[in-house]
Design a protein that fits this description.
- By secondary structure, this protein is α/β, with parallel strands linked by helices.
- The protein has four helices and seven strands, in the order E-E-E-H-E-E-H-E-H-E-H.
- The strands form two sheets. It has a five-stranded mixed beta sheet with strand order 1-2-4-6-7.
- Strand 6, helix 3 and strand 7 form a beta-alpha-beta unit.
- Helix 1 runs parallel beside helix 2.
- The longest helix has 16 residues.
- It starts with a strand and ends with a helix.
Length: about 120
């Protein structure tokens, strides 16, 4: 997973994680990412920025992970914000109607501002 996904702390506080996804987000990568996010959520991290700038392909498992995590985080008063969403992924979000529950912004800085103001 380390080649495809990187997780780091961002923002002025320690409660936001930036997740960069490169290449493929297939079933195996989605499973490992979910394990990592589950641990972070158990540790009280409820704010995420998912940067998809370098994403080349997303499987149905990846879409399922994002929707499940978004719903779980809403219950915990957390949030996922997607940035740099490729056109083909945006189209998938639209046809699956997930665009209605996902927050999308152009830049990481825009996403950080939103998450920092939601404290």
């Amino acid at each position: 997973m380390s080649n495809n996904v990187q997780i780091k702390e961002v923002g002025s506080q320690s409660d936001i994680r930036l997740i960069n996804i490169r290449g493929l987000l297939d079933t195996v990568i989605a499973y490992h990412l979910q394990e990592k996010m589950d641990i972070l959520i158990e540790d009280g991290i409820f704010k995420y920025i998912i940067d998809l700038e370098e994403l080349e392909h997303i499987s149905s498992a990846g879409i399922g992970l994002f929707s499940a995590m978004a719903l779980e985080l809403q219950k915990l008063h957390g949030q996922i914000i997607f940035t740099h969403v490729p056109e083909q992924v945006l189209h998938l979000f639209e046809i699956t109607r997930l665009i209605e529950i996902f927050t999308i912004r152009e830049t990481i800085n825009e996403a950080i501002k939103i998450l920092e103001s939601s404290n």
